[in-house]
Amino acid sequence: MSDEQPPAAFFNPYAVAIDDEVAIALLAEMHIRKAIERGDFDDLPGSGKPLDLQDLHDPDWWLKAFMRREKLVVLPPSIQLRKDDAALDGRLDELWSEDDVRQEVEEFNERVRRGRYQPAAGPPLVTMPRDVDATVVAWAQRRAARAAQGRERLQSDAPAEGGRRRRRSRRWGRSRGHQPGDGWTHPSTARGRDR
Length: 195
Prior knowledge:
This protein is an all-alpha fold. The chain is built from 6 helices and no strands.
């Protein structure tokens, strides 16, 4: 009787008819138990800390986890419109043409009007539509003030020696110190001669 018997927990998989999914689950369980016995799961990061299972029965758990992971914020429409109103002048200052500014203000006003006709979802909507013409005039004044500041900065940075700046040659070869007749040719013209 020198034959070794397998442990009582072991069974012959050929003795019982099981489907593939059950077999895979049993194999996985067997590998997990062997890894626990070897101590492979000791000293893992987060061991001994509780699992975050608060959204276990929430059907939107994946959406909430995604928003938390990506740091996305969805605000009620009234608060989002307040934030958009506060940031509108900054967005308008990045635009270059008056038509783009008018279009941006009209889109903002349309969002405010839509918000007024929707049922309140959160705090009341106190943001008012903006006067398009007054906003465009304020944008033009801010733009003119920035241009004047830029000109003043350029004048203050100008050299004090007569206000003349050294002109750079437009020819590619001359900016590198090459003179006509010194034997140097531009690479694009040299390629044509080698053929």
